[in-house]
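User: Fold this, then the next.

Assistant: Folding the first:
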Amino acid sequence: MSSSSVPYAPPAAAGGASPSTGRKRRKRFSLLTRRDKLTLGLMVGIPAFIHIFLIWLPTIGSIVLSFTSWNGIGGLDKIKFIGFKNYENLFSNYPPFWPAFENNLIWLGAFLLIATPLGMLMAVILDQNIKGTRIYQSVLYMPVVLSLAIVGFIAQLMYSPNMGFINNFLVAVTGDPKWTASGTAIDWLGTPGLNFAMVLIAAGWRHVGYVMVLYLAGLKSVDNTLREAAAIDGANARQTFFRVVFPVLAPINVVVLVVTIIESLRAFDIVYIINKGLNGLGLLSVLITNNILGEASLIGFGSAIAVILLLISIGPIIYYLARTMGREAE
């Protein structure tokens, strides 16, 4: 018989055992002990559980309830799905919606065009290491540590027609007691447009300090050689900032933009603490609260407004995350 007809037999494993019987299971080696795994699981699991329980579940619940007519009375078996009827009524048969939407846009415009540039200007000035810069930083940042509810309470004290500092100051200066009575001065609950402007001033007072801290941190990280190179090329301070420094602050600009948009859309505390969002101070967040916690308890309808606000807010968040993740990938 030729050698080519002899079938091939694999060599026997060491010790005479076949590969299938001689193969031994190898134990996986891990640098983490059982205690480390337990600690890591608790550190990741507890925050994840809290986040899912307090954020995602209420969000999903609001989306589901927005398609119902539930008023909170009775159990879950009383929930009746009505499709998109809440959204149809919201856009066509609910007059407060569009004024509140416009107020949110005005709030956003005031923050973007006034408060944010003012905060940037404060940061640029304080970055010059002027005398007493630490004191100025503390004073400008102080409103940030206050909640908007406290800021609203301070606004009440400042603008009150009877006890407010501004009205009393104007009366003392002019000697005319009709300042408050006639509404020529700050008539706090009498003129909707003026009320909203005064609230924006109070909210902007807080936002300026927030923006100032963000830009001040960014300015401290800018390489001084860029400024020196611009000065050698003959650029003045204004040209150096807008053509050299400001482009370098692109990541800070994105953060400030996203924070400003979110702050404008979720504004609630300051207007609700003043007069529950009435008389020209209505916002989308106030409409949500008034419908869900009001006497009628229109939970389904209020949830529909909440979903609209969520859809508007999620846009800048997705943009920020996409930009950040793309930069990390590069």
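Now the next one, as you asked:
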Amino acid sequence: MEKRLIYADNAATTRMSETVLQAMIPYMTELYGNPSSGLYSLGKKAKKGLEDARSRIASVLGADAEEIFFTSGGSEADNWAIRGVADKLSKKGRHIITSAIEHPAVLRTVEDLEKHGYRITVLPVDSTGLVSPEDLKAALRDDTILTAIMFANNEIGTIQPIRELCEIAHSRGSVFFTDAVQAVGHVDMSLHNLGVDLMAFSAHKIHGPKGIGGLYIKKGTRISSLITGGGQERKRRSGTENVPGAVGFAKALEEMYSEEGLKKRADVKRLRDLLSEKLLAIPYTRLNGHPTQRLPGNLHISCEFVEGESLVAWLDIMGICASTGSACSTASLDPSHVLLSIGLPHETAHGSLRLTLDFDNTEKDIAYIAKTVQSVLEKLRAMSPIYPRG
């Protein structure tokens, strides 16, 4: 079998686009001034680049420029949203609601707050990974200060009914935060219509640079600062701004929501569906996540009678970059908390495979992935003492 190099782990990170890189280079080589050094032209030009990037991001997302705050990435934005609201509204209440399938940056943060006297309710999800609006209604209390439900899951790709969940939370006076790191760039949205109070997002999931993310803070939302210091980001997030990163972020986001980007997104979904059809035809495989309400490039399957780590290792040997789930927890030997939350038994959860496609993938890639996965599964199952034969 011909060996090729195919990248199919775009939920972990993406290749930076050439146009994004070219947009950043001037701010690393010529316009390298500190944007806070506004008394001379080099600093002023850097400041202009930063604020132009902020305005462009806001325009694409349907927000106002003063509602966009740059961070070092999605995890910082998650921490800021949760800890900032918890601190600011602690006198009003100390109850926080989240879901069982959140990213570790959310779950570990609320667990830490629980140690400091906050009360946490973790909502279950159904077998497709959806949070029930009725469960949220039942969980809300007079002292609920924050509801944190992710927009789209990083492992199984399920997209939540965010607008509906947000309206329910608001009906009881709760601030609503969504981690949209996987959704931004891949799902149509307008923040002013969506209604959320806070939203986290990141550049390296959409062909932008690593080390830059953002937090949308709706006007009027009460939130404390996470990082104090020199007073950058309108005194809400101190630290010298990452101007090249912000410029690259804006360019990447514009490309994702351009007419060409939307056409490419539709083609990614077509390729994902083609791959899904081929892989689910293999015996003892199943789809994880919602069958239709999911990210366009996400395909997450469970393969019985194999270990996911062995499958991914063999795929790597054959030139395919894939994963068993979240890039943030691949070092753990425990089953995915997301897969356990949708009701998979431990042994099935251990045999998971996540393939996340993007613009660079082709039909030739799909054919090779499908053929290789089937071949590797046959080899691994041949060594399994519990695989049914005959």
